[in-house]
Amino acid sequence: MPRSAWTDRQVDEIIGNLLRSGVILAAAVVLLGGGLYLAQHGSTVPDYRVFRGEPADLRGVPGIVQDARALDGRGLIQLGLLLLLATPIARVAFSVLAFALQRDRTYVAVTLIVLAVLLYSLGSAGR
Amino acid sequence: MNLVEFALLVGAGSLGAGFLGSLTGLGGGVVLVPLLALGFGVDMRYAIGASLISVIATSSGAAAAYVKEGYTNLRVGMFLEIATTLGALGGAFLAARVPTSWIAVIFGLVLIHSAYLSSRTPGTETDGGVSDVWARRLRLDGSYPTPAGPETYHVQAVPVGFGLMFMAGALSGLLGIGSGAIKVLAMDRAMHLPFKVSTTTSNFMIGVTAGASAGVYLNRGYIDPGLAMPVMLGVLVGSLAGARVLVGARTRLLRIIFSLVILLLGIEMIYNGLTGRL
Predict the structure, then answer these.
(1) ipTM greater than 0.95, yes or no?
(2) Which of A5, A127, B209, B249 is buried most deeply by CB count within 10 Å?
(3) Segment B208-254, tens digit of pLDDT
(4) Sign of the CA dihedral B213, B215, B221, B225?
(5) Is the pLDDT of residue A2 over 70?
(6) What DSSP string describes A25-39?
């Protein structure tokens, strides 16, 4: 089989770096948002006993981005969580590319199926 | 208790859960939901949402290191992720239709099962040198580093492993856990992968599995930033610290204690579920 582009070893290396930087970036944004959130609302009393569900703007990508740009603490945390969520998706997307460059059709199909399921799930939060 | 105190307490609890979870290899997610629900009185849905987020963080954080060491079998992981992601999506949809008291009972049963699994020694089955027809077709066989150089292994019972992975995914989506125990069971016992390959590949898959239900959770408003923030950061720091200590640490006694804790939490979850308190 032609292995012109990347070897499996190199793919491992790149995937490892991708996962690490994704998590670090997400944690940094969550930390920043958390600091702001506690500074803005630190003295209020939290109540998680009764489930109300999040407000609409914190349930979908457009609303979260909007809140985060307004430097709202909760919006920024949620943006960090979206970045975290994007990390495995980016990993799978990269795997599609790597298998395509290795001309491994079976695994291009396998990874595309996984990518489709992930995007479908995120898509339900896209509105 | 105001927000700052709440965040510090939840963060410290999550740090401990992540530390013990990675040190014992049992995962932090299984104790997080009971900790939040029973300890802090958090609604099951918020607890499950926050736990799922922390599962993605630890999986990606730990997998980054393992993938580079060459233990992870990427092909096995990718192929089985079809089963886990579909299962997780199903589990996440189911989570909205099942009363939380039932979820608490199912959670308790899974906890008791994990405690039982961890009391057994890891499988050291060696394969018979032949691989499953699916393993050959999908080129799943691989090799892993040993002190005596790379050692090859053959993969067996792929359909059984695939079925178990679907179940692992469904439980992950329903309960907000990584369900690493069932993933390892599928690869180690059914598919006869070496134990170290099973655990690292399981860890690699957990993030993608949880990612498949996280979108649904987010959309349904289960993921609260004020709760997810201390949980995610605490578990992440705790599990990375645990992975560092793990090398050379004597974890046998700790594992036994942690299994007992999990067993007791399981019983308490079932009790609270049956009496309708969760």
Answers:
(1) no
(2) B209
(3) 999 999 999 999 999 999 999 999 999 999 988 887 776 655 667 77
(4) positive
(5) no
(6) HHHHHHHHHHHHHHH
Per-residue model confidence (pLDDT) at position B129: 66
Instruction: Using a CB–CB cutoff of 8 Å, tell me whether B93 touches chain A.
Output: no
Domains contained in chain B, number: 1
CB contact under 8 A, A110 and B78: yes
pLDDT for B53 equals 94
Among B21, B70, B76, B212, smallest CA distance to A16 is for B70
Mapped to the 3 state alphabet, what secondary structure does chain B carry? CCHHHHHHHHHHHHHHHHHHHHHHCCCCHHHHHHHHHHHCCCCHHHHHHHHHHHHHHHHHHHHHHHHHHCCCCHHHHHHHHHHHHHHHHHHHHHHHHCCHHHHHHHHHHHHHHHHHHHCCCCCCCCCCCCCCHHHHHCCCCEEECCCCCCEEECCCCHHHHHHHHHHHHHHHHHHCCCCHHHHHHHHHHHCCCCHHHHHHHHHHHHHHHHHHHHHHHHHCCCCCHHHHHHHHHHHHHHHHHHHHHHCCCCCHHHHHHHHHHHHHHHHHHHHHHHCCCC
pTM above 0.80, yes or no: yes
Higher pLDDT, A83 or B119: A83
What pLDDT digit, counting tens, does each position of B190-207 carry?
Answer: 898 988 888 889 988 999
- Structural domain range at position B71: 3-274
Option in A17, A43, A77 nearest B228 (CB): A77
pLDDT digits (tens, 9 = 90+) for B35-62: 999 999 999 999 999 999 999 998 887 7
pLDDT at B175 exceeding the cut of 90? yes
- pLDDT of A1 above 60: no
Kindly report the nearest CA distance between residue B248 and chain A, in angstroms: 24
Torsion of CA B223, B229, B232, B236, to 10 degrees: 170
